[in-house]
Amino acid sequence: MRNRHSERHMVSRIGWLRAAVLGANDGIISTASLMVGVAASAASRGDVMVAGIAGLVAGAMSMAAGEYVSVSSQADTENADLAREKAELASQPELEHRELTQIYVKRGLEPELARQVATQLMAKDALGAHAWDELGISEMTTARPVQAALTSAVTFSVGAVMPLLVVIAAPQALLAPLVSAASLALLAVLGALGAKAGGAGVVKAMVRVTFWGALAMGLTAGVGMLVGHAV
Q1: Per the domain annotation, does 105 fall within a domain?
Q2: Span 87-145, pLDDT tens digits
Q3: End-to-end CA distance of the chain
Q4: How many CA atoms lie within 13 A of 50 on its CB side?
Q5: What is the mean pLDDT of residues 49-78?
Q6: CB neighbours (10 Å) of residue 14?
């Protein structure tokens, strides 16, 4: 019986994982910070809820639009490079063959073996071979604008809902501290989950995300208190 060796590499998750972690993280931090700032200005629970809901909607749309535009630009660049490479393969295949051969030589293959590998790969899928080895474009890492936009919008909304639920349940006098504490706990969990899914260090990710979350909420609360006393 043959032994089957199956590996699951984290790089296959890089597209959706980046958008998901960024979306949820931003949803928690921005919405919680906004509500903490409003609560620190001695606003009513209703005002805090309105600010949080407005922040959720605006933030989700902003994240979706930003991710779509950003990843679309990446996709446009990839498509332009692929089109240029396709034209070069059609007009000067010998030069492209030598170019691919040199890539394999630099990676450690003997010149003759590198030439044979380039010949076989180009015979099967010349554009695919050059896309992977010359341009660094693969199926796993290719840009997907719609996927990134939807993932960011949904995860931002999920993250933003959490501090909103705390506002509903928390006593008026404790809105700011309870929203802050719950949001920091959620950020720590999110950091751990993101690190675990990506195969990175859990503790470092948790410390990093909670530090920046605490800083954002602290600064916003300070601004809210100053503005609340000024008006």
Answers
A1: yes
A2: 988 998 899 999 889 999 988 889 899 899 999 988 888 888 888 887 777 665 566 78
A3: 78
A4: 6
A5: 90
A6: 13
Q: Which of 154, 181, 157, 158 is CA-nearest to residue 169?
A: 181
What is the span of the domain harbouring residue 143?
22-226
38 closest CA partner among 47, 30, 28, 25: 47
Residue 97 lies inside a defined structural domain of this protein: yes
Contacts 24+ apart (CB under 8 A), 78-82: 78/135, 78/137, 78/142, 78/143, 81/135, 81/137, 82/127, 82/131, 82/135, 82/137
Does the pTM of the predicted model rise above 0.85? Answer: no
HEC secondary structure over 143-190: CCHHHHHHHHHHHHHHHHHHHHHHHHHCCHHHHHHHHHHHHHHHHHHH
13 part of a folded domain:
no
Domain membership flag for residue 14: no
Burial class (CB in 10 A: 0-12, 13-18, 19+), 124: exposed
Number of domains in the chain: 1
CB hemisphere CA count around 126 (13 angstroms): 18
Find the Cα–Cα–Cα–Cα dihedral 52, 28, 183, 204, rounded to 10°: -160
The Cα–Cα gap between 43 and 198 comes to 40
Closest CA to 34 of 16, 50, 15, 17: 50
Query: In the block, which residue shows the tokens 């928690």?
Result: 28
